[in-house]
């Protein structure tokens, strides 16, 4: 089976050599997604707004790939501080509270100072 590459068309994807997502059979691997707001072309200051933006991009990517939030089996959250993690937990629950995938949260620096969160997901279609 051929791999399907999903792209937003951003210059960063080409420059850094990655795709927004890769579909391989029943699997969809969504790259780390930051809180950038593509409607306003800005990065909000607020961790909650950034987390919602991450999920908006993830949902759009999954739908383009033929998947949905319900297909997510694994999440990896990268946040820049413990306080940001505490503020983002309700957002995670809002989108994935019923799905409850396996999850990891890592406190770390991100590429740009204004980035407070990055979310990576793996989805698998059920048989």
From TrEMBL:
InterPro entries: RutC-like_sf, YjgF/YER057c/UK114. It comes from the Bacteria. Pfam families: Ribonuc_L-PSP. CDD domains: YjgF_YER057c_UK114_like_6. This is Enamine deaminase RidA, house cleaning of reactive enamine intermediates, YjgF/YER057c/UK114 family.
